[in-house]
Amino acid sequence: MTDHTPVLPGLSPVENREILARFDGGALSSNGGVVVLRELELQLRFSDMLAGCMNDKRDQNSITHTLRDMIRERMFAICCGHEDCNDLNILRDDPALKMACDRLPASGPALASQPTLSRLENAPTIRELVRMAVGMIDVFCLSFKKIPDQIMLDIDDTPDRVHGGQQLSLFNSHSGGYCFKPIHIYDAATGKPVFILLRPGKRPSGEEAARVMCFIVRHIRRNWPRVRIIFRGDGHYGGPQVMDFLEQNDCFYIFGQPGNTRLTKIARPWCEDVATRRVTGQPKDRMRRFFQTQYGAKSWSKKRKVIARVEATELGTDVRFIVTNLPGRGKNLYEKTYCQRGNMENLIKEHKLYTKSDRTSCHRKQANQFRLFLHTGAYWLLLMLRGAAPKRSRWRTATFETIRCTFLRIAVRVKELKSRIRMAFPSSFPQQKMLTLMMTKIKAQSP
Questions:
Q1: CA distance 90 to 109
Q2: Which of 132, 207, 394, 428 is the most buried (most CB within 10 A)?
């Protein structure tokens, strides 16, 4: 009988002994840490939220894979670095992944295959996706043990290159091709995702940004009526429609303000003053000063506080403006509040690069939006796993890729017995104590 088991060729001998490597290990998995994600998902219940928003029209007496099971399978696979749905044609028999989806590793049925998961991604309607967006905000609010007095929400968009005729794709010369420009909103203090919206590959207008913020504010206030909400973003989010809406709804904002002829004229004496101060007295390589004034553009309904950061160097002077309704000194608002939004880029990178949320390759916009929700669920799980590490450990600041490679991509041998399931991790696993400590903390936090 011919043996068709794949062989790994080309390995050099070790001390004159030939190496024979075959893919015949049996009930082994390279995703042993996924069972830890299962405990986190039981706390988060993100898959329950998504599944509860969908109307399953299938005959419930004839199905093998529930909506919840398929969503969890997809999220766990993304967390482990298998963002391509085709990988699940093989991984559907992975013993650790089956256990994470509440199936026995050997005798349990296989998980859903790629065609089944593709039908799942194309199933949600627009109304169901709206319900998921509301549910996503509810998950964010429920993740806090105590209602905060104030939340700072960072908002930004990022290019998502496409290669085909996907709906909503537009050519963007700045991004270098056809793309989407999804909007990401995160809590600045915790890095928790609030909302991710798929949208066309162009800069959002003031009306569109105001609609998005209206949706966010309305549903956050439904959970937390008295919370102080602050939005922080680039200049193209500081349109008059946005500022009017936020002021009318007792919200605060701090946005970049693009320069123009009028602002340049106002800032000219400030620039001359800073440049003169730099060269007089004890010369300095760089001098920075802050000024603020009441400024109103023609499209604005009233004048607002604009802060100018003026910096003089041997190359000349540079001016940056921000607009805000927050109280305080210009220096503190600019350096300690506005400039901290740079961390938003790291949050987007975690979502886009490490959960591969730019794999929006479906044709229909509804399917791609649903994919963004699945990747956001994976983001939540990785964020919670990282948060289970001790506060002063290096793992608290590690990237999702480091967390994945260290605590999820672990080899394990699984053996299903009559009354229990035995998992054998490598004795040489270097982070045994840390993983044990993290799992202890996760279990202590479970309801």
A1: 14
A2: 132
* Maximum Cα–Cα distance across the chain: 92
Distance CA 22, CA 94 (A): 17
Residue with structure tokens 């060729």? Answer: 9
Looking at residue 411, its pLDDT comes to 93
User: Which region, left, alpha or beta, applies to residue 280 given φ > 0 means left and ψ of -120 to 50 means alpha?
Assistant: beta
* Tokens at 297, concatenated: 């553009």
Exposure b/e, 170-203, CB count within 10 A at least 16 = b: eebeebeebbbbbbbbbbbeebbbbbbbbbbbbe
Cβ partners under 8 Å of residue 379, min gap 6: 193, 350, 351, 355, 357, 400
Whole-prediction pTM: 0.93
Annotate 141-190 with three-state secondary structure: HHCCCCCCCEEEEEEEECCEECCCCCCCCEEECCCCEEEECCEEEEECCC
d(CA 105, CA 94): 8
Assigned token pair, 124: 């949600």
Mean pLDDT of all residues in 226-243: 95
* Residue (of 373, 410, 402, 364) closest to 385 by Cα position: 402
Tell the burial category of 273 from Cβ atoms under 10 Å away from its Cβ (0-12, 13-18, 19+).
middle
For 280-333, where are the alpha helices, taking DSSP H only? 330-332
Which strand (E) or helix (H) includes residue 375?
A: helix 365-387
Q: What are 292-344's pLDDT values in tens digits?
A: 999 999 999 999 999 999 999 888 899 999 999 999 999 999 999 999 998 99
> Pairing relation of β-strands 183-187 and 193-197?
antiparallel
Q: Is the Cβ–Cβ distance between 123 and 205 less than 8 Å?
A: no
Specify which residues 415 forms β-bridges with.
422
pLDDT above 70: percentage of residues in the chain: 98
What pLDDT is attached to residue 446? 77
3 state SS of 93: coil
Q: Are 193 and 184 spatial neighbours (Cβ–Cβ below 8 Å)?
A: yes
> What is the spatial distance between Cα 41 and Cα 262, in angstroms, rounded to a whole number?
53
**pLDDT tens string 2-31:** 565 677 787 788 888 887 777 777 788 999
Q: CA–CA separation, 178 vs 173, rounded Å?
A: 8
> Mean pLDDT throughout 108-135?
95
